[in-house]
Amino acid sequence: MNANAVGSPLGLTGFAASAQPIGGLSAGRKPRIGVLLPVPRNDQFLVVLRKGLRDAGWGADDIEFQVRRANGSAEQFRGFAQELAAMDLDVLITASTAAATALKQATSTIPIVFVGTTGPVTAGLVASMERPGGNATGTAGFSTDIAVDWVAILKEIAPQVARMAIFYNPATAARGAVDGWRIAASCSIETSEVRVDTVADIGSVVAGAAKDPQMGLIVIPHTFTFSNRDAVVAAMAEHKVASIYGIAEMVRSGGLVSYGQDLGDHWRLGAGYTDKILRGAKPEELPAQFSKNYALAINTGAAKALNLAVPPAMLSRAREVIA
């Protein structure tokens, strides 16, 4: 399994109140932060961001927030990105590669902090992780090699699986990330792709995969699957397809098993980047970073419904077990 460590080359996880002057801000003006929440039911991450900024020395009334709550669609990302870019904002922050890309296309001057994205280099958000260049920086999760772990974990809990397919929506999944995960997974099992274009397609796509009783699905972490997680896990349960997910929220919604990251960790790191930018740092000076703080979550009720016995060793390794 991958090492459980969060890289923090800039000390972004250990905030302290600072009396440093606030660079780039007019005297007496509150900093203004634009927050683009990519999917519904996402306000818990706004809470994490606010707390991180408080821990960095910003009072509850020191910052003005402009929050936009999207429905997970690329079209709405573009609309909100243009709206936020037209405001007099000091920092923009968002999660998801698609939302960050929309912000990047909308402005080349307002600093952008992205959190928990996939493939920020291949998506064009940064020139490199070490030297972002331009106006964006932040955190990325789910490196290519995690796909090897996804295969091993799903086969451990569902030994009948002999083939796997990556389940994704092309409008919100980064093509480079999909390719990387498919290639990594195919080193240990036959791996294909299952494309789902709309919410209405979820049931029929999963039903098609279920025609092969030895097929397992890798539901990659991206905006479409997260925003439609109830529909995704319901289809998996209805058609009895063993699936692994990249984020624990999917398991909390009824999915079988996940191996991935706590998105709250990324928003906490995002608060650190935001604080530094408000105090005068430029995004191009702040290296982006990968997080490999991966954890296992298991839904034993979902396993029982699929007639799967969860190995005791898996239960002992899990950070979260949901009955």
Number of strand segments: 14
Going across the major beta sheet, what is the strand order?
Answer: 1-12-6-5-4-2-3
What ranges have pLDDT less than 50 throughout 5 or more consecutive residues?
Answer: 1-23
Order of helices and strands: EEHEHEHEEHEHEHEHHEHEHEEHHE
> In DSSP terms, counting alpha (H) and pi (I) runs of 4 or more, how many helices?
12
Q: SS-based structural class? A: alpha/beta
Largest beta-sheet characterization? 7 strands, mixed
Structural summary, described in words:
With 323 residues, the protein is of the alpha/beta class. Helix content is 36%, strand content 21%. It is built from 12 helices and 14 strands. The protein has helices at residues 43-55, 74-85, 97-106, 146-157, 175-185, 202-210, 223-227, 229-238, 248-252, 263-278, 300-305, 312-317, and strands at residues 5-6, 32-37, 64-69, 91-95, 112-117, 136-140, 163-168, 190-195, 215-219, 243-247, 257-261, 289-292, 295-299, 320-322. Helix 1 packs across helix 10 and helix 6 (202-210) runs parallel beside helix 8 (229-238). The two termini are 24 Å apart.
